[in-house]
Amino acid sequence: MPRLLLLLPAAGYANRDFIAAAARLNIELVACADYCHRLAPGWGLPPLMSVPFDQPDIALPQVLAALKQPVDAVLAVDDHGQALAAQLRVALKLPGNPPEAVATLTDKLHFRQLQQATGLLYPAFAQVGADALAAAAVSGFPLVVKARRLNASRGVIRADDADQLVQALEQVQRIQALAQRDKDALLVERFISGVEVALDGVLCSGVLRVLAVFDKPDPLDGPYFEETLFITPSRLPDATQRDFAAAVERACVTAGVTEGVVHAEARVNEAGVWLLEIAPRGIGGLCGRVLVATLGMDSAEIVLRHAVGLPLPVQANDTAAGVMMIPIPASGIFHGVDGQDEARAVPDITGIEITAPPGQLVAPPPESAGYLGFLFSRAATPQQAEAALRAAHAALSVRIQPLVKP
Predict the structure, then answer these.
(1) Rounded to two decimals, what is the model's pTM?
(2) Could you write out the three-class secondary structure of 87-139?
(3) d(Cα 292, Cα 135) in Å, to the nearest integer?
(4) What digits encode the pLDDT tens for the residues 130-178?
(5) Separation between Cα atoms, residue 120 and residue 127, nearest integer Å
(6) Nearest CA to 321 among 347, 350, 362, 284?
(7) CA–CA separation, 106 vs 125, rounded Å?
(8) DSSP readout, 323-344?
(9) CA distance 104 to 242
(10) Which residues lie below 8 Å from residue 168, measured CB to CB, with a gap of 6+?
């Protein structure tokens, strides 16, 4: 039985998916949480230890001291534990992507520098502090201000003029500080027009096998960039999809990431494919469940299979599928979602899962990286899969109590 150390984030959507997949595959899990293990929810897998994922220098010796038996692999469920997982693999002499390679992909500035050095398409960019004039000198408006290490559109704001740029810099700096990240300078770059797409694939010795290419049919032109719909298969031309995959493989190998599942985002316009970012993990949230319809297994199972050397899924079938990350319409206290039975009754809808608990404070991007829940569809065509998600979402009514400002 393979034995695997799994880093479980406090609020990870996919924690249970990984635990369930490990049980199906007969993989023994050793769980490590990034908060007090005595407060762990009922995952059916009590964490062995709790350590601060965002402080690998402190967490590394704690994990090594707690491990009593060897493990065959180390994985992090999401972005939060990637740096620690990479350092643990080095300390335990296990195969996998080195820490410096993971750091290159998870830092938006370093990723832009990698694109620049390897000849991939990239927007003009600059690293800036609070100096709006220096930022504007990047290449003119419109610009996008980004926190370097946050994900899921958190801390990403478009600015169309100097006044908006000043406001965006101040807002992103505040968001970054609230996330308790290092005081990084911000990334400011030229806005890239075009349609946005995503790719999930698995690297084996530096060769990328594409698992799915997703269309994002909702326009993502700002000022904020909340993701909602992912539909597969993509309706992009086959040649464009091949160019996308080739760019992802090239960027990963150049960075030193040659193993495991990766999730890439890109913009496509008349100039070609512009990579936005690549994460050394599968698609986020519960979105990985959409692959069950096309590949017969979810992203969590594919990640685990690759980690312990089990066979990966065969070629995708002809089924179309989609997922909607239910958007947060306003900031406030979440109370619930009405109309779920009506949404489930929509043809081609295969599931609804509300993940936000009642009473939770919620906010849309750029302030937050969370979602209210997920809608899933499966249909004969991408158009039908998309239409089902839109119809189901229209049947829902979200109840959020606005916060009263003092």
Answers:
(1) 0.93
(2) HHHHHCCCCCCCHHHHHHHHCHHHHHHHHHHHCCCCCCEEEECCCHHHHHCCC
(3) 44
(4) 555 555 556 689 999 999 888 878 889 999 998 999 899 899 988 888 8
(5) 19
(6) 350
(7) 17
(8) EEE----SSEEEEEEE-HHHHH
(9) 24
(10) 145, 157, 158, 159, 223
